Amino acid sequence: MRLDHSIIHAAETHWAERLRSRALEPPDRPDDASLLAAFREHADWYRDRIGAAQSLADVPPLAKADIAQIPVLAKDDLKDVRTSGTSGFQVTVRNDKREREFRRALLYRPQLFCELPNQVTQVVFVDGAWCARPGDPPKQFDYGGCHYDTWFAGAAGDPHDILRLLNAVQPDLIRGIASAIVRFIEQAPGPLHRIRPRYVGPGGEYLRHDWRTRIATAFDTQVLDRYGSTETGALAWQCPHCEHYHANADEILIEPDSNGLIATPLFISSQPLLRYRLGDLVEWEPEPTDCLIQLPTLRIREARRDDWVIDGAGNRISPLGFQFEQIPGLAAWRLHQAGDGSLTMYFDSATPGCTAAALSTSLLEAVPGRVVRVVEGVWRFTRPGKFKRVSSDFTKQDRESYSTSAR
Ligand SMILES: [Zn+2]
Question: What is the whole-number distance in angstroms between the Cα of residue 288 and the centre of ligand 1?
Answer without folding.
Answer: 10
